[in-house]
Amino acid sequence: MKPYRILKTFHFLAFVFFLPIVNAQIPSGVYFSEDENTRHELKIDQGYLTHTVYKTDPAEFIKAVGGFFSVDDNKLRVSLEFNSAYEQDRIKNLEIPYTLAGERLNLKLDQEMVFDKREAQNQALDGQWLFATRGPDTGQDRRGEENPRKTLKFLLDGRFQWIAYQTETMRFSGTGGGSFTAEDRVYTENIEFFSRDNDRVGASLKFNYEIKGDDWHHTGKNSKGEPMYEIWAKRN
To answer: Is the confidence at residue 170, as pLDDT, over 50?
Structure first.
């Protein structure tokens, strides 16, 4: 084969190989990046993203951000709904260059970081839920999307996270999360990070759940042993 044909073939193969990496959309899922005892946990689904940083041993919450995102020119553009460090950095928007190769996501944050995708694990309750009201449902007023005060639960691939925040002031009230199971109407949370009290890490809490239309009826006892009944509305 003539040299110029070899060169053209090389350029074509390089282009074909590189093109899907540049233009690839980020698959829905949970991604982890770990450095010694510090874990970065990324949840991406339905145009929404959360990025949480915490230490595993000893347990220590560091930071959490989240919001709606779009992908443009190989950048993640995130309009934040919450930022636990907002009082210090005043950041409401993020622009994060990324590349994707298979199930490995490379993000250029303060430093370049590689995230590996967790194996998919579909369960009941997967999705994003907003706290609506205390149950039982008797037609009372509900908190909706238009209310700036929100508590979000994000469940995906066996991982859960709740976040309490205020969208107009960016006031952050707290977050916690870890692994979960939802089976036979029993929902179990295993806490791996908790911004309000690191000593809560390691606790396992069991609740009952029932889906009624677009509502999740969440019942059982809270961390103080008191009866609780919450209704969460499906966001997406």
So the answer is: yes
